[in-house]
Amino acid sequence: MSLVKVEFLEKVGIITLNNTQKLNALSAQLVDDIIEALDNFQKQKIHIIILRAPEGSKVWSAGHDVKELPSKMRDPLSYYDSLEVLLRAVEEYPGPVIAMVHGSVYGGACDLIMTCDMVIADKTAKFAMTPAKLGVPYNSTGILHFMNRLPINIAKEMFFTAELVPADRALNVGIINHLVAEEELLSFTLNLAATISTRSMLSIEVIKEQFRVLSKAYSITPSAFERVQGMRRKVYDSHDYEEAITAFLEKRPAHFKGE
Description:
Keywords: Lyase. Belongs to the enoyl-CoA hydratase/isomerase family. The chain is α/β, with parallel strands linked by helices. It is built from eleven helices and ten strands. The chain has helices at residues 28-43, 82-92, 107-115, 131-134, 140-149, 152-161, 167-173, 185-197, 201-215, 222-236, 239-250; strands spanning 4-9, 12-17, 48-52, 59-61, 97-101, 104-106, 118-121, 126-128, 165-166, 178-179. The strands form two sheets. It has a six-stranded mixed β-sheet, sandwiched between helices. A four-stranded mixed β-sheet has the order 4-6-8-9. The longest helix has 16 residues, at 28-43.
């Protein structure tokens, strides 16, 4: 049974995350269903996608499914991890992917929001980047998504505090493109998509790809890359990482030792 609802409305493909019993956590199955929907829309030459949660959801997505994270001794966010595959699929989709946000967005889902081309939200929207709560050594690609979107001090605050950023502030710092009334969220997003659909989609496809390529035009020496990977391994091999995952599954506060 698919964990997404797929519909076509006014020349726009709409993908609704539809596993609310698990707070739309980005499990491998949910991710596979989103990617399958994107692939099908691409084959149908549907140029504009809206990614949303069901109407009235208090949580847009709880982020990476923690139960699927490795307990220790393996990179939890490697190149072929399901979340990373999804982020690349959104980046590489040949047309705008618009996140329509009602409710709170956590962790890997916040990275997904940052990877979308635009974000439209209402007052219920809140955004938290939570790897420091789980002892997760976030990967360089994910950090770059935030660096490309936000002032670096704001990105650092999100990662360091893991606190929710309310909708008003999210608009001010650049997470959100437009903040609209809850009852206008869908109509506003569809109107924006309708405006885009009147433009040259070939031009937009090429411009989006240029944004993607240029946003990754950072040089790094092999030794610097190896150092970053070594630092990340120090974290995912640590007591803190194992403790955080265990504490989450046991529904208790984690006790970090910095080792």
